[in-house]
Structure of HTH-typetranscriptional regulator GlxA:
Amino acid sequence: MRIAILAMPGVQMLDVAGPMDVFSEANKLINGRSGYELSVVGRDREPVVASNGGRLLPDRTIGEPLDGFDTLVIAGSPSVQDFEADLALIEWVRSESAHVRRLASICTGAFLLGSAGLLNGRRATTHWNSTTRLRKMFPTIDVQPNTIFIKDGSVYTSAGVTASMDLALALVEEDFGRGVALRVAKELILFLQRPGGQSQFSVHLEAQVSELGPIRDVIQWIAENIADDLTVATLASRLGMSARNFARTFKRETGMTPGDYVDAVRVDTARRMLEEGDVPLKRVAALCGFNDQSAFRRAFIRRINVTPVEYRSRFRRGANHAPKEIAAALGV
């Protein structure tokens, strides 16, 4: 299967190198079966300078059709906005999407798929810090901000940077089965499937992009007073607004209800505490504003899809715990 990865100038290097390592490792494990043939596509033949200063030498250019290719992957870039109106590039993406079996974007590569009209009416995701802009630019896309990757038909989109490897593992599993994908994950020290969504790996939350002074100020106040009473009525009174008007304004500016945002901040604060120390769970719950451990556990499972105990065992700094799937494969 021939896979083309489009790399723009300023590309995030790991958006290219991560999937290539996953596919390359799979090639070693499939025992003579036809594997992956990987090609980097550039805008021209000049070396592509990545955002970290590294250089990639393209195998092909956007002047060449992808005849015989199975999958097209659009890598992300911190400077993706420079290419969203590049008509030649967008037309190439649109045209070549019709010639491949699968289409995928990594991180902000979703903006190029969106500009080409290839995500209209689909569920999609991107880097957590860009989901609001993706939603505003392309209102017909059903943006899912708290997802590692999404498959909608034959189109895949993923969250940022290291999520490129999660997506690549999913493609390997689709092509060669769970056994091969698990062995690749084991060799590269990866999760076969991460627990929860990408919000657990981000320090900031989507709603923090609000540019309006009052809403930005109340967001800051929430972060600094996480254990306090943070009901809609309380937050609204700080701004001298009615609860209804405050809730409407907050949702319009952040894409989240006040209740969802407070819940997300509390869980995000709790997961960082679980990563960084051994504070008892009851104390973590209290410090993060949960009424009791049961409410804490329910909120954590709802947003992270694992219990606080399971999360701490996997992500606490200095811990040496393997995910269940890998642990089983290792016989531990």
